[in-house]
Structure formats: structure tokens, C-alpha cells
From TrEMBL:
Keyword vocabulary terms for this entry: Hydrolase
InterPro entries per UniProt: HAD-like_hydrolase_sf (IPR050155), HAD-like_sf (IPR036412), HAD-SF_hydro_IA (IPR006439), HAD_2 (IPR041492), HAD_sf (IPR023214), PGP-like_dom2 (IPR023198)
A Pfam family it matches: HAD_2
GO MF annotation, one: phosphoglycolate phosphatase activity
GO biological process: DNA repair
Keyword Transmembrane helix among UniProt keywords: no
UniProt GO cellular component terms: cytosol
Domain of life of the organism encoding this protein: Bacteria
Name this polypeptide is given: HAD family hydrolase
Amino acid sequence: MKLALFDCDGTLVDSAGLIHETMRRTFDKFGRPEPRFEDTKAIIGLSLDIAIARMQGRQHVEQEDIDMTAHYKSLFSIVRQDLDYKEPLFPGIREMIDAISGRDDLLIGAVTGKSRRGLKLVMETHGFDAHFIVARTADDCPSKPHPAMVSECCDETGMNAADTIVIGDAVYDMQMAKAAGAKAIGVAWGYASVDELIANGADAIAYHPNEILRHFS
């Protein structure tokens, strides 16, 4: 039996455009310089308040970051509607999830910097609710790369970290997996480079979702 824990943004769904536009409007509202798309992609995976602090060159969250986080959350669904944006699955993701979801020797979960509400929306939009039996979000645990998301998913499912695989596109996913004692698979279609993923502990790199399947054999 193994536990597969998937990151969401940049791993399952391509949400960078939506996140960046919401971030751009938030920074504009607070009179801050407009972030570059590359700056936004670099923080995807972190909990939102920490991400906003990092984008402003701060290592610790200050009150302005908390205020900007609240504004971002209030804007997110509005921007989603403005763009008619459904956070599309990356090519091959649906087929990969369908292939592994019926297996008796595999449990599937999510570990994400999204809010629980945001993750629920993605799961409902793509019909993944029944496949993902456990999840931890930014509402539940400290931000990645803290190992709590992985550890709590293991505890809830009765799995050992050694039998758990974290699949993600960010360096924070790799660092979180290693801190928890789990295996880390980096995906090449997300927002970090392959070199960055390897440097931060990736045990393997998947260049297409169907390559993930071999790690569950």
C-alpha cells in the first residue's frame, strides 16, 4: 500500500495566470509595484501570506501582508469569473488520475498552499472529489516546506512516510517531502525548473503524467 500526495497548482492544474492576475490587482490596490509573472510563479506553493511577504522581500509576515492576503482572497473568485478561468488540468493529468484511482494498493491525497475552499473548487470542477480521500491545505497546516501537511495525511490514513510519495512542481514540495521522510517526485511541466527540483531533493522527475505511474508499480 502506498499514499500518493499531489500538489495542486502547477502539478494538477495550470493556475499561474489566474494567480498572477489576482496578485497583480492586489499589489495595485495597495500601491505596490506590479509583480512580474516570474515573481508570481516563484512563490506558487507557499501559503498566501508568506508568498506575499516573500514577493515584497520580507522573510516574515507583517500586517500589510495579512491585509493584502485578505484582499487577494476577496478578489480571487471575481478574477476567476472575469477571466472565465477554470484552472485547466495539465494534459495527461485526468488519464493519470483515472489510471491510479481504481487501484486497491494506492491512496490518493492533496497537499496544497491553496485554501480548502480553493481546493474544493478544483476538485469539484474536474470531478476528482471521489478520488482524493485526504487533503491538507493552507487553512490546516503551516506553509510548505514544513512537513505537517504530509505527516498529518499519513496519520489520517494510517500510512508511514516511507510508503508515501509527494508529487509536485515546486522546490517547496520537494523540501516538504524530504522533511517528512517521504519520497519526492518533481514534475517538469510546472513552475520550477528541473534543475531546481533536483537540487532540492527530487528522487525522480516526471516529464509527462503517465511517467508518474511507474513509481506506483
